[in-house]
Write a structure and sequence with these properties.
The chain is of the alpha+beta class and 770 residues long. It starts with a helix and ends in a 19-residue tail after the last strand. InterPro entries: 6hp_glycosidase-like_sf, EDEM1/2/3, Glyco_hydro_47, PA_dom_sf, PA_domain, Seven-hairpin_glycosidases.
Length: 770
C-alpha cells in the first residue's frame, strides 16, 4: 500500500484551487475525505504492513517488516527510511512492477515537480528514483529465460535460479503479466539513463507479438515462457490479457514509437471483429475466433471503454460502459464476473477501479454530465455498502452484501484519483493532466520522456501495414468530427441499452381483455424431454393454453410483474406462479399451444414436432434473444423460459425483464415470459400429472379471483397454503381464511406470498424492484 500511494498523497500535497461550494465541489471534498479515511486507517492500524485488514483494524504482514518510524515525517522521507527492497520474499513480477515500481516512479515525478517549482521538497535528491532503480534490478532476474518472457515470480533477495529463491520452477505466465512492463521499465530507463530495463520489456513484447495467431491477430491468455507455446488459447480483453493491449497504446503515447501503435491497431481491429459484440465483450478461441468460449465476462474488462476513448472509438465505448453501469445498478457493484444475461457468476467485488476509470475517460471525452451522475453513484455506493470504521472493505458477495477483510492498494492508488479528477476541471489542477499518461495502476508518467530523454533501440520485429486504417488510427478523437452539431449523441447511444438488465420498469394497470377458458382439444403425441434440474417428466404431449395481458411503455422505469395462473381443473386458478416479462416479441394471444423444453442455443433438433406449439426453454449458455430466434425459426408460437439455477424463486430474487442484445429485435414476433426454477418445477409437475393444463398469463394485479395457492418457504422447503378470497361484506372486506397443505408447517414459518403484489421483493429498493 505504502509505496503505491506515495504519489497520490503528493498529488494532494500539490494543492488545488478552492472548491466553489457547487455540487461537484462538495463531491471533491467528499472524495478527499474518503481517501483520508482509507489511507489514514492504513497508517493508523496497518503501517508498515503490506495491506490494511479493514474489518480487523490491523495490518496484513508478509515476511520481514520494517520499523514504523515517525508518522509525522513527510511521506517521501518515510518511504525512503522505512521501506526495504531486499526482503527474502517471493513476489509477483507483474504486481510488483505496476504497484511498487510504478508507485515509486510516480512519486519521484511529483516530488521532482514540486522541487522545481520551489518552496517544497527542496531537500529531495532523487531518493525515490534510486529506490525504483534498485527494485528494477531486483526484478531483472525474472527475465533470465531463453525466450525473453519473464518468470511470473521472483525473490527480491535471491532472484530466480538461486537455491534459496524458492521460485524458478514456473513454466507459464499470463499475457498481461509479460506484456505490462514497458511503461514502468521504459520510464525507469529514460529517467535513470540505464537502458537495460526498457530493452527487456521491449523483448517480451516482441515475443508476444510474434506468437499472436496470424490468422486472427489475437493472443491467448497464458503462454509458456520457455518454448513460447500457448497454454490457454482463450482470447478476450479481461483478466489475463487486459493490460497488454492497454500498454501497447500507452507505450506509443509515452514513447512516441509507431511500432506500438501499429501493433495496437492491428490487435484492436481483431478485437472489434471477433470479441466485441456490443455491448458485450466475449472471450473467443484465438484459433477459432468466430465462436464464444464462455457465457460470462469478468469485471476487469471494465477498463476497455476507457481504452477505446483513447483510441477514439466512442460509440462502442459508450455502449459497453452503459451495459456495465446497468449491471452496477442491478447488483450495487460490478460482480467479479457476470453472465451475458447480467446475473452474478462470481459474486466477489474487490473495490476494483476500472469502471470509475472508464467513467472518467468518457466524461472528459464527451463532457456529458450523465457521467458525473455515474461517478456520484460510485461514491454513494462505496460509502453506503463498503465503508467500515477502519477503511473500506471489499464485498465478499454482492448478492448478500457481506464484507471481506481486505482493502487492496489499487483501491487507494486508482479509485480516488479517478473520482477526484472526474469532478475537477483541468484549470483547477496543480498540474496539466494532459502532460501525463496513466499507468494501469493510475500512476502518472510524463509524456515528455519521448523527447527529453534518450530513447532505447527499437523493437526487433516489423509490423505489417494495417489493412483497415480509419480516421483515428493515428489521431485523437474530435467530438465535432465524430458527432457534428449533436451534443446529445452519447444519450442517443445509451438509450438503446437503458433497460438492458431488466431493472427498473414501472407497472401500470391495464384494462382486462376477454379471457378464453375453453377446454383444450386433444393433440398428437410427441416426446417431451425435460432436464432433471427442472423436473423429471415422462414421454407424452402436454398442452398449455396461454391468454395474454402483456404490455410495456418505453418511458416507464420498473419491471411489470406477471403471473402464470393455472386455470384448468383441478387447479381452477389456485396455483399462481410469479413470472417476468420480455421486452421483445409480441403480446401473447388466445391460442392453444403445446409445450416442449429446449436449451435452444443452436438449431433445434426435431423442429417439426415443435411447430405450432409453445416451447419450454431452459435459461443459460446463451442470451434470451438467441434462444428466441432459434425457437421462432423452428416454428414455436410462444416460449416460457425456466431458470436453470436449481432452487431459484421469485421470493428470494428480484424479478427482471428479459431484454435483447442491443440490436433490433423487430424480427422476433413470439410472446415470452420467464419463470424461476421453483415456479417452473410447479408448472412442469402439473403438466406431467395432468397433461392438459390451461394457463393464463397476465399482469399480477389482474389475476383472476377465487381460491389461490401461496408459497410458504421454511428451511429451504416449499409448502403450499390455500387462501380463500371471500366476497366483501357491506361492512368491508373479511380476513381470508388460511389453511395449510402438504407436510409439516410450523407456527413459526415465514409466509411469503408468491402472488401478492406486496411481496418480499417490493421493499428492496429501485435496484431490485420486480
Amino acid at each position: 500500500v505504502y509505496t503505491e500511494t506515495v504519489d497520490v498523497s503528493e498529488l494532494w500535497a500539490c494543492g488545488a484551487s478552492n472548491n466553489t461550494g457547487s455540487a461537484t465541489g462538495q463531491l471533491k471534498d467528499q472524495i478527499i475525505e474518503m481517501f483520508d479515511h482509507a489511507y489514514g486507517s492504513y497508517m493508523k492500524y496497518a503501517y508498515p504492513a503490506d495491506e490494511l485488514m479493514p474489518l480487523s483494524c490491523r495490518g496484513r504482514v508478509r515476511g520481514q517488516e520494517p520499523n514504523r518510524g515517525d508518522i509525522d515525517d513527510s511521506l517521501g522521507k518515510k518511504a525512503m527510511t522505512d521501506v526495504r527492497l531486499d526482503n527474502d520474499v517471493v513476489v509477483s513480477v507483474f504486481e510488483t512492477n505496476i504497484r511498487v515500481l510504478g508507485g515509486l516512479l510516480g512519486a519521484h515525478v511529483m516530488a521532482d515537480l514540486l522541487r522545481q517549482r520551489g518552496g517544497r521538497m527542496q531537500w529531495y535528491r532523487d531518493e525515490l528514483l534510486h529506490m525504483a532503480k534498485e527494485l528494477g534490478h531486483r526484478l531483472l532476474p525474472a527475465f533470465n529465460t531463453t525466450s525473453g518472457l519473464p518468470y511470473p515470480k521472483v525473490n527480491l533477495r535471491y532472484g530466480v535460479l538461486n537455491p534459496l529463491s524458492r521460485t524458478g520452477t514456473e513454466s507459464d505466465t499470463c499475457t498481461a503479466c509479460a506484456g505490462t512492463m514497458i511503461l514502468e521499465f521504459a520510464a525507469l530507463s529514460r529517467l535513470s539513463g540505464d537502458s537495460i530495463f526498457e530493452e527487456h520489456a521491449r523483448k517480451a513484447l516482441d515475443v508476444l507479438w510474434q506468437r499472436r495467431q496470424k490468422g486472427s491477430d489475437l493472443v491467448g491468455t497464458v503462454i509458456n515462457i520457455h518454448n513460447e507455446e500457448w497454454v490457454r488459447r482463450e482470447s478476450g480483453v479481461g483478466a489475463g490479457i487486459d493490460s497488454y493491449y492497454e500498454y501497447l497504446m500507452k507505450a506509443y503515447i509515452l514513447l512516441g514509437d509507431n511500432v506500438f501503435l501499429d501493433r495496437f491497431n492491428i490487435h484492436y481491429s481483431a478485437i472489434m471483429k471477433y470479441i466485441s459484440q456490443p455491448p458485450l465483450l466475449l472471450n473467443v478461441h484465438m484459433h477459432n475466433p468466430t465462436v464464444s468460449v464462455r457465457s460470462w465476462m469478468d469485471s476487469l474488462l471494465a477498463f476497455f471503454p476507457g481504452l477505446q476513448v483513447l483510441r477514439g472509438d466512442l460509440k462502442p465505448a459508450i455502449e459497453t460502459h452503459e451495459m456495465l453501469y446497468q449491471v452496477t445498478k442491478q447488483h450495487k457493484f460490478l460482480p467479479e464476473a457476470f453472465t451475458t444475461e447480467f446475473r452474478v457468476h462470481w459474486g466477489q467485488h474487490l473495490l476494483r477501479p476500472e469502471f470509475a476509470e472508464s467513467t472518467y475517460y468518457l466524461y472528459k471525452a464527451t463532457g456529458d454530465p450523465y457521467y458525473l451522475r455515474v461517478g456520484q453513484s460510485i461514491v454513494e455506493k462505496l460509502n453506503a455498502y463498503a465503508r467500515v470504521p477502519c477503511g473500506f472493505a471489499a464485498v465478499q458477495d454482492v448478492r448478500t452484501g457481506t464484507h471481506e477483510d481486505r482493502m487492496d492498494s489499487f483501491f487507494l492508488a486508482e479509485m480516488f484519483k479517478y473520482l477526484y479528477l472526474l469532478f475537477t476541471d483541468k484549470s483547477q489542477l496543480p498540474i496539466d493532466i494532459d502532460d501525463y499518461i496513466f499507468t494501469t495502476e493510475a500512476h502518472l508518467l510524463p509524456v515528455s520522456l519521448s523527447t527529453t530523454q534518450p530513447p532505447c533501440r527499437g523493437n526487433n520485429t516489423t509490423v505489417p501495414v494495417s489493412k483497415e486504417e480509419d480516421l483515428f488510427t493515428h489521431t485523437c478523437p474530435s467530438m465535432e468530427t465524430l458527432f457534428p452539431n449533436n451534443p446529445s449523441f452519447a444519450k442517443t447511444i445509451r438509450d438503446s441499452y437503458k433497460y438492458l438488465t431488466g431493472v427498473g420498469r414501472a407497472f401500470h394497470p391495464l384494462p382486462i381483455r376477454c379471457v378464453d377458458k375453453q377446454p383444450l382439444q386433444s393433440a398428437a403425441r410427441k416426446t417431451f424431454n425435460a432436464p432433471k434440474r427442472v423436473s423429471t417428466v415422462h414421454k407424452g404431449v402436454y398442452r398449455v393454453k396461454l391468454v395474454a395481458e402483456v404490455s410495456h411503455t418505453a418511458e416507464e422505469d420498473e419491471v411489470m410483474p406477471h403471473v402464470v395462473q393455472l386455470i384448468s381443473p383441478p387447479f381452477l386458478g389456485r396455483t399462481v406462479l410469479t413470472a417476468g416479462p420480455a421486452k421483445f416479441g409480441l403480446d401473447l394471444t388466445k391460442q392453444e399451444h403445446g409445450a416442449s423444453p429446449y436449451t435452444a442455443c443452436e438449431p433445434i433438433d426435431g423442429a417439426v414436432d415443435l411447430k405450432g406449439h409453445i416451447a419450454l426453454a431452459l435459461r443459460g449458455e446463451c442470451m434470451f434473444v438467441v434462444k428466441a430466434r432459434w425457437l421462432q425459426q423452428a416454428g414455436a408460437i410462444g416460449v416460457i423460459f425456466i431458470d436453470h439455477r436449481e432452487g431459484s424463486n421469485s421470493q428470494d430474487t428480484p424479478l427482471f425483464q428479459m431484454v435483447g442484445d442491443g440490436d433490433s429485435t423487430k424480427d422476433i414476433t413470439l410472446p415470452f415470459v420467464f419463470l424461476f426454477s421453483r415456479e417452473g418445477a410447479v408448472l412442469t409437475a402439473a403438466l406431467e400429472e395432468h397433461h392438459n393444463v390451461d394457463v393464463l398469463l397476465l399482469p399480477k394485479e389482474r389475476q383472476l379471483g377465487g381460491p389461490t395457492l401461496e408459497f410458504v418457504l421454511e428451511n429451504q422447503e416449499l409448502f403450499l397454503k390455500e387462501e380463500e378470497e371471500e366476497e366483501e361484506e357491506p361492512g368491508g372486506p373479511q380476513k381470508p381464511q388460511q389453511g395449510q397443505f402438504g407436510s409439516k408447517a410450523s407456527d413459526q414459518s415465514k409466509q411469503c406470498s408468491a402472488d401478492s403484489s406486496q411481496s418480499a421483493n417490493s421493499d428492496r429498493g429501485p435496484d431490485a424492484s420486480p
